[in-house]
Write a structure and sequence with these properties.
Number of helices: 5
Helix content: 25-40%
Order of helices and strands: EHHHEEEHEHEE
Largest sheet: 7 strands, mixed
CATH topology: Aminopeptidase
Radius of gyration: 15 Å
Low-confidence stretches: none
Shape: globular
Strand content: 25-35%
Strand order of the largest sheet: 1-2-3-4-5-7-6
CATH class: Alpha Beta
Length: 172
């Protein structure tokens, strides 16, 4: 794979962001969740229309990862969305960071993480944080390698299934 190129997404990328969001989420989690819960999640909170609306919403930053001309991943960063234990701190949240199925393990996550941390530094943030399903060991391993540490947990509702996400943070 060629080097990964990262660019900021714009409002014109909203449909692309929505499509890759839905594709990568489904590819990542459909094998370990019921069809009913996945269908409910994809048709209610994770619709194409709702995802497209996020792209231009205040406080959101979207990054697109490319290998040549092919989109191979993306990240959604959010400002001003602190969990209680981080109130009062200046933070940037990595709300989503995904690589396409064929690009996993090929440097896409690394490139997106590097850019996310750089943006947090440029914005003068104290911490960067994220939520990760506590059953997603490969993602937890990835974040741990980057120096993230668990500081709390919260519920994530996938369809009718209440799952636990660990909240992880890294000092900038």
């Amino acid at each position: 794979m060629s080097p990964v190129f990262i660019r900021y997404a714009t409002e014109k990328d909203a449909e692309l962001i929505a499509d890759i969001s839905r594709q990568t989420f489904y590819d990542t989690f459909s094998a370990v969740n019921t069809k009913e819960n996945m269908d409910k999640f994809m048709s209610e909170p994770f619709t194409k229309e709702k995802l497209m609306a996020e792209v231009d919403a205040p406080g959101n930053i979207f990054l697109l990862a490319y290998n040549n001309d092919e989109v191979v991943g993306y990240a959604r960063l959010r400002e001003n969305n602190n969990p209680k234990k981080l109130n009062g701190l200046s933070t940037l949240e990595i709300a989503r960071i995904y690589a396409t199925k064929n690009a996993i393990g090929k440097g896409v996550g690394k490139a997106l993480m590097e850019k996310s941390i750089l943006i947090a530094k440029e914005k003068g943030k104290q911490l960067i944080w994220l939520g990760v399903w506590k059953e997603n060991q490969s993602a937890i391993n990835f974040y741990t390698k980057w120096g993230f540490k668990i500081f709390d947990e919260h519920d994530f509702i996938l369809g009718n299934d209440v799952q636990k996400d660990w909240l992880m943070k890294k000092t900038i």
